[in-house]
Amino acid sequence: MQTVRMKRVTIIADDTVKYRIIKEIQEIGATSYTDCLAHGKGAKGERPRHAEPANAKIEIIATPEVAQRIPEQNGAAYAHHGHGPACSRSILICVSNKTD
Q1: For the chain, which terminus, N or C, has the lower number of CB atoms within 10 Å?
Q2: What is the count of structural domains for the chain?
Q3: Residues 35-51: pLDDT tens digits?
Q4: What is the mean pLDDT of residues 61-67?
């Protein structure tokens, strides 16, 4: 088994812009993502489960080069709406050498 260095980028945004963000990260070159509803409490207060619009949490696994471009693209596009805090973390992906 070998490992591959990748980055996991997490973006929290209003659910209303989720599909636009996903489209843009795919245009940048990201090929893997997961999205789900997000609830919680932070500096801006509590975001309860019944809030409209809901928050979305989008996690992207990408090469370091692609991951670096995601916050640059989305930070500029959504910062004026208060959306899109993004963070990036290095991860190792285990890849099987199995060929069947």
Answers
A1: C
A2: 1
A3: 998 888 877 788 777 76
A4: 90
**pLDDT above 70 for 83:** no
Give the three-class secondary structure for 36: strand
Structure-block tokens of residue 76: 């500029």
pTM: 0.74
Dihedral of CA 42/61/89/74: which sign? negative
Q: Which residues make beta-bridge pairs with 35?
A: 58
Question: What is the distance in angstroms between the CA of the first residue and the CA of the last residue of the chain?
Answer: 14
Range of the domain at 58: 2-95
Question: Of 56, 76, 70, 53, which Cα lies nearest the Cα of 8?
Answer: 70
**Does any domain span residue 100?**
no
At residue 34 the predicted structure's pLDDT band, cuts being 50, 70 and 90, is very high
Q: 16: domain CATH number?
A: 3.30.70.120
Whole-number Å distance between alpha carbons of 100 and 84: 40
Sign of dihedral through CA atoms 23, 25, 28, 31? negative
